[in-house]
Amino acid sequence: MSGTESDDAERHRAKMEKRRAMQDAEVASKTVEKGLLLVHTGTGKGKSTAAFGLALRVLGHGGRVGVVQFIKSRPTGEKTALEVFGDRVVWHTAGEGFTWVTQDKARDMAACQGAWETAQALMADETVGLVILDELNIALRYEYLPLDEVVARLAARRDGLHVVVTGRNAKPALVEAADLVTDMTMVKHHFKAGVKTQAGIEY
Amino acid sequence: MSGTESDDAERHRAKMEKRRAMQDAEVASKTVEKGLLLVHTGTGKGKSTAAFGLALRVLGHGGRVGVVQFIKSRPTGEKTALEVFGDRVVWHTAGEGFTWVTQDKARDMAACQGAWETAQALMADETVGLVILDELNIALRYEYLPLDEVVARLAARRDGLHVVVTGRNAKPALVEAADLVTDMTMVKHHFKAGVKTQAGIEY
């Protein structure tokens, strides 16, 4: 190794050592363990997808997962894949499609109310470590469910339970109550190039 | 039902009918089917998580998935969970931790080079429908791999193969080559409230 290369390697090591020390100090400063309320919102792709990624993570640590789909109903790859975990994943689909498919407000409201009752039952079930409330933001946006009650119940979830809420246009009250909020921001989308919905990508 | 309720229901139906027609027209305008290059970047949570959610989706449709982790090495819940799919998931971990953990540039570069070779082998394997290149953006940012070569190879992927690249600070040349780019934007993070890294959430 030449002198210059060795200097470069040494500089890199010193810089990284400093960074590691900062990282360690930061990790040591975090001491709270709690069940989190997470919100995935924004117009980009990945909101539900990341929720199902979290499901995998929880399953890998031996937990059980509850999924309530408030709006979507198309058969999805993730549902089929998660069937391999048997009763460690409980899946409930409320709606019969987006509201512009059913075109029937009363039916949509009744379906959402039923889904919300299922959600509360899953949140009360102590064997469940993560509950995914998929597209709940849409139901809240259309006022199919009472926002105050939903946020209060989510905020009062039992210790150790993680809840993920997905969907565009998360309500400010929900964002306020949440521990983690990620906005999936669309930078570039293949639909603009005429690429269609494909199995494995959109569902 | 009173007159007002019935008017309201009718207005809703008419509005949703219009929306559905727009939606249908949009879907009909998309005709291209292709393997996509997806990039999950940004400082928020959900980049790798959404990639693993996509893996579930592909597995649910009967596909095989390749995972190459360029930087991280901590045992993760998603890795354990995906083991249930046997050889339908091929998992390769390159690094021994973030660069500030190893503090050895030469070793990190060699590990990334090996990972990139594995990635190319997975991309060539016609039984694989999705390849996840986890934290490749970090390896590119530290110039551990030649950007031009990597982007050229990704752009020249075979028909029907989806590739997801994750990590902060995606390079502009990669964004340019991608079909879909999502920036996971941090709105609110529990670390700020002193909550620590937890199984099932961060790994």
Automatic annotation (TrEMBL), chains A, B:
Reactions catalysed according to its record = 2 cob(II)yrinate a,c diamide + reduced [electron-transfer flavoprotein] + 2 ATP = 2 adenosylcob(III)yrinate a,c-diamide + 2 triphosphate + oxidized [electron-transfer flavoprotein] + 3 H(+); 2 cob(II)alamin + reduced [electron-transfer flavoprotein] + 2 ATP = 2 adenosylcob(III)alamin + 2 triphosphate + oxidized [electron-transfer flavoprotein] + 3 H(+)
Does the keyword Hydrolase belong to this entry?
no
Metabolic or biological pathway, per its Swiss-Prot or TrEMBL entry: Cofactor biosynthesis; adenosylcobalamin biosynthesis; adenosylcobalamin from cob(II)yrinate a,c-diamide: step 2/7
**Superkingdom of origin:** Bacteria
Kindly list the biological process annotations in GO that this record carries. cobalamin biosynthetic process; porphyrin-containing compound biosynthetic process
NCBIfam families in the cross-refs: cobA, PRK05986.1
**Protein name per Swiss-Prot or TrEMBL:** Corrinoid adenosyltransferase
State the gene name recorded for this protein: cobO
